[in-house]
Design goal:
single chain; 367 residues; mainly beta; Jelly Rolls; six-stranded antiparallel beta sheet; 1 helix; 24 strands; 7% helix; 38% strand; globular; Galactose-bd-like_sf; glycoprotein; Pectin_Meth_Modulator; signal; transmembrane
């Protein structure tokens, strides 16, 4: 299983006794390919809950709602020792704080669904895991206990992708510098994929990178957004609460430059857009300045390494929303991140320039 929808990951496979909307009996919910535990419902697009609120089905006609303490699970065949990213779409049913726990034991991660990142009412997310065996259990569960039994997260479009570790570049200390290696993205979904908190750089849905904050950052593609370089980039959609970082290998006391592309995703994001960039003990604020010829600009920070590993990080200075709906979250785009040793060549150039200027000054004096 390299990259694909998991069996019946979109919940569109018809149960043997039909979908609930067409079933004659009120028997237990059967969901082909999935085991269920607790109150699990197959919901249909356009269906309403008791309060009259329309249920949001991310894509297609059907999705699954998990009631209090309910779960669905499926056994997957994978490659032992490999790292995988699971992409899924999720929506909340009620206004209360809802969350979704995604686990491949012993790994487990809870995704907070309280923040809605766009007006469509649902978002794609991704989590990652390292396969401890060639058979694993993928489990989605609702850890909450809401007063209203009709509340609970809705999930849809569950896909999996084996992650390949990118080669280490020779002239750049940053791993996966262009964000080209990452989770599965549905080609016909224009919302990108949210990367929630992940503090493990070795098992990350975005190899090499960590998300070390409460809120998510958005992984975007060139099919639906303006991307500075290649096919993928990161949009910082959560202000100072959405930080992406990497520990890069450096040589102590050497001078380095951090360079990156700063851009606008062309998703009607309201300006100003600005990024705070960190490199070791240096921090610098960069504002995106529109150019008629380009949707991005190159920014740089010079720093002296203090250790054999140096932290680089980015967050959005502002909390931005789109101008068309005033509520969908957006922000500046970061791409093509490079850290390179800049001391020796620069110093040689400066010395040569200094010698040259001194020579010409000496000749002028003689004249």
């Amino acid at each position: 299983m390299s990259k694909s929808l998991v069996p019946n990951g979109d919940f569109e496979t018809r149960p043997s006794n039909g979908f609930p909307s067409e079933a004659i009996s009120d028997g237990p919910t059967e969901i082909p390919n999935w085991k269920t535990n607790g109150t699990v419902e197959l919901v249909s697009s356009g269906e309403k809950v008791g309060g009259g609120m329309l249920l949001i089905v991310p894509r297609g006609m059907h999705a699954v709602r998990l009631g209090n303490d309910a779960q669905i699970s499926q056994e997957l065949t994978v490659e032992k020792g490999a790292t995988y990213a699971v992409t899924f779409s999720a929506a909340r049913t009620c206004a209360q704080l809802e969350s979704l726990n995604v686990s491949v034991p012993p790994a487990s991660q809870t995704v907070d669904l309280q923040t809605l990142y766009n007006v469509q009412g649902w978002d794609p997310y991704t989590i990652s895991f390292e396969a401890g065996d060639d058979k694993v259990q993928l489990i989605f569960s609702n850890p909450g206990m809401e007063d209203d039994p009709e509340c609970g997260p809705i999930i849809d479009d569950i896909a999996i992708k084996k992650l390949v570790a990118p080669d280490k570049p020779k002239d750049n200390a940053v791993v996966n510098s262009g964000f080209e290696f990452g989770p599965w993205m549905f080609p016909n979904v224009s919302l990108g994929v949210l990367l929630p908190t992940n503090l493990d750089e070795d098992t990350s849905p975005l190899p090499g990178w960590m998300v070390e904050s409460n809120r998510a950052v958005r992984y975007i593609d060139s099919n639906h957004y303006a991307v500075p370089e290649g096919k993928r980039a990161i949009e910082l959609v959560s202000g100072k609460e959405g930080i992406i970082s990497q520990m890069v290998e450096t040589t102590p006391d050497k001078l380095y430059s951090l360079t990156f592309s700063l851009g606008h995703a062309m998703d009607k994001c309201k300006e100003p857009l600005a990024v705070m960039a960190f490199a070791g003990d240096q921090a610098q604020n960069f504002h995106y300045t529109p150019d008629s010829n380009s949707t991005f600009q190159v920014a740089s920070v010079n720093f002296t390494a203090r250790a054999d590993r140096t932290r680089i990080a980015f967050y959005s200075v502002y909390y931005n929303t789109r101008t068309d709906d005033m509520s969908s979250l957006c922000g500046p785009v970061v791409d093509d991140v490079r850290v390179w040793f800049s001391g020796s060549r620069r110093n040689q150039v400066q010395v040569l320039l200094g010698v040259g200027l001194a020579f010409w000054a000496y000749l002028l004096v003689l004249v």
